[in-house]
Design brief:
Layout (H helix, E strand, L loop, with lengths): L1 E4 L6 H11 L5 E4 L10 H10 L5 H6 L2 E4 L4 H15 L4 E7 L8 E8 H9 L3
Parallel strand pairs: 1-2, 1-3, 3-4
Antiparallel strand pairs: 4-5
Length: about 130
């Protein structure tokens, strides 16, 4: 599986937890620096961000991908919309949660969310 990280660098423990939950080894980790200019269009910056990942159209559509989305909600929404357009479906994403009482603040992998399955289930409510 290819893990594309649009957020803070993942720790060794987080990567191990992701592989355990996914029941699959990470074959490639792509770290994407995500910083947007507040004075420019977020839509264009999101498109450029996805382009910077460097995957081919075939890889977007055929590889097993897992996404750690950006932390800022507007950017995450745009990234997911751009990914859906390229992949043809919503990817699975990682949800991190704070470790209670940790100093400095630390985060652990809470779950992997299958957004495509959520979408399919929601379609039944139309």
């Amino acid at each position: 599986m290819i893990l594309v990280n649009f957020s803070h660098p993942l720790t060794t423990a987080q990567l191990a937890a992701i592989e355990t939950l996914a029941q699959e080894k990470t074959t490639q980790l792509i770290e994407v620096k995500t910083h947007f200019n507040e004075t420019q269009s977020y839509v264009e910056q999101a498109r450029a961000l996805i382009e910077s990942v460097g995957l081919t159209p075939a890889q977007w559509q055929q590889e097993r991908l897992l996404i750690n989305p950006p932390s800022l909600s507007a950017i995450a929404a745009l990234v997911l919309a751009e990914l859906h357009g390229r992949m043809g479906y919503f990817p699975s994403i990682i949800r991190l949660r704070p470790v209670p009482g940790s100093m400095p603040p630390q985060f652990e992998v809470a779950e992997i969310l299958n957004l495509h399955a959520v979408r399919e289930q929601a379609r039944l409510e139309r």
